[in-house]
Amino acid sequence: MKQLIIKRLLLLLPVVWGVVTIVFLLIHFIPGDPVDIMLGEQAMMAERELLRQQLGLDQPVLVQYGRYLKGLVLFDLGNSVYSGEPVFKRLADRYPATLLLAVASMLVALLLAIPLGILAAAHKDSWIDSGSRVAALIGISMPNFWLGPLLILVFAYKLDIFPIGGRDSPMSIVLPAITLGTALAALLTRMTRSTILDVIHADYIRTARAKGVPPWKVYTKHALKNALLPVITILGLQFGALLAGAIITETIFSWPGIGLEIIEAIQKRDYPMVQGCVLTISLSYVVVNLLTDLLYAVVDPRVRLT
Amino acid sequence: MSRRFQQPLFVIGVSMFLLLLAVAIFAPLFLPADYNQHMLAEQLRPPTAEHWLGQDENGADVLTQVIMGTRLSLYVGMVSVLFALIIGTTIGAISGYFGGWFDGVTMRVVDIFLAFPGFLLAIAITAVLGPGINNLILALAIVSWVTYARLIRGQFLALKEQEFVIAAKAIGASSSRIIWRHMLPHTLSPLMVQTTFSLAGAILAEASLSFLGLGAPPDVPSWGRLLASGARYLLEASHLATFPGIAIMIAVLSLNFIGDGLRDILDVQERGRG
Question: Which sequence spans correspond to the domains of chain A?
């Protein structure tokens, strides 16, 4: 196991370097002068020079790159052009909210997907199965920036059960989590159904049935255990999509996470903050993928041997 | 009966998509109103006989904008997927066929691109380049070429060992002939399935970026931007969010129906990132 962890970590290094470098280069891809774009063309010469110095843009690119890498090691992502606050501090403040939302959406997705997937598999080729297929395709196709406002309209304005937005009460997370979790639920429902169908003809299931284990127990206890492995993988791989989807969901519900931060930063042309957000979200995704890989190895010992 | 027609969802998907395509192509012939015509006295009016889908916050006709939005979404989706398809397939084919250092380098690049959640990368690119249709296409193509590169490389690695390829090599066929004439046609099924899902993903991403104000410029009607104003006036004018939402859903759902059906018909197992 130790060897596996070291191997995966070494494989990860070039990827992390690539991500970090692309994020560094982002500001250099801005057409025209980034300082002009951040301050507007009316800004005073002195003001521009000051910002140029602050961002290090007056230095050769390689020097800038060296400083940037050194900063990263010291958790220094520069300062916000807008508020002057250190980017790292701001991100550290906002990150837990995004993580909480992502985890809550995963829970929503799992709670919906596993029962629905089992139900569809148990009634393969019946109307329940077809119904769940259509429902899953609708769930995948429903844009979250449509579902969100619809949920607000019905459950916040009309029925007044949940808050419209923000993060003032524990109830505030319900609507954003449903909005973000629906597409994932749809995907996982299909996945659960097909993995259960893959294992349902295995010998150990036949044995369980022959012993007289009731059908519901065969599905939930015997089949589900082995069917969950691919579901875990999909869940890990989809974590990136969740973090990216959180950008829209947080914007709709004013949920104070990194997603809302990046959109505000883009609107204010606060590029150091944009860079920090992109870096944080991508690196989280890389780490979650690594953890998924390792978790898979823990759950399924065969993986360790390959 | 052909297998195609045993798949009702596939047939429904194809019909819905052809309808949208017809709307996009022939839009200028039957536009009910000028989408730039602002009638401020008629802000946020609900659907009427004159304006079937109501009016927006400037009093402009919503139906006209939804129709023009179809054009934009399909255009951006198709062009970006086409670019991704050409670039990704070419790189994947060369990588899989020749292997060696080129394969090593491109696959590391692919790994780096896959380390970014796709939509986040699209946001970062459009944030840097600014809103605009060409920037939107560029961003979406940059995000999705990797899926094709990986898919085709994988297919080629398997095909390379097959007898017909070894035979073609033995009789002295050139590499480019083997790639284009012998191997690529065998990847058509997974390529078709992937393209349908990629198109669905691109349309959804275009609408999402426009919703965030990073996609279409303000003077071009788009589903995403229309929905963004709908979200601002939810209570006063729920029609404003409803109709563009339905349009996006029909477009994406039709492609998902087609892709899901195609996968069953062609019996394709692979599916990359959407």
Answer: 90-268
The answer to whether ipTM exceeds 0.95 is no
Residue A288's closest chain B neighbor by CA?
B115
Give the Cβ contact number of residue B10 at 10 Å.
21
Mean pLDDT of the B129-152 span: 94
pLDDT digits (tens, 9 = 90+) for B8-27: 889 999 999 999 999 999 98
Q: Where does A142-267 have alpha helices with state H?
A: 144-151, 174-199, 203-210, 215-217, 224-237, 239-253, 258-267
- Facing A153 at nearest CB: one of B118, B128, B238: B238
Asked if the model's pLDDT at residue B42 lies above 80, the reply is no
Cα A101 from Cα A72, distance rounded (Å) = 26
Instruction: For domain B46-273, give the CATH number.
Output: 1.10.3720.10
A23 CB neighbours in chain B (<8 A) are 124
Q: What tokens does B171 get?
A: 């009789």
- A-B interface: how many C-beta pairs under 8 angstroms? 131
Report how far residue B103's alpha carbon sits from residue B91's, in angstroms, rounded to the nearest whole number: 9
For residues A173 and A255, give the distance between their C-alpha atoms in angstroms, rounded to a whole number. Answer: 8
Rounded Cα distance, A94 and B193, in Å: 39
Measure CA of the first residue to CA of the last residue in chain A; give whole Å.
12
Q: Which residues of chain A have pLDDT under 50?
A: none
- State which CATH number among 1.10.3720.10, 1.10.238.10, 3.30.70.1050, 3.10.50.40 fits the domain covering A90-268: 1.10.3720.10
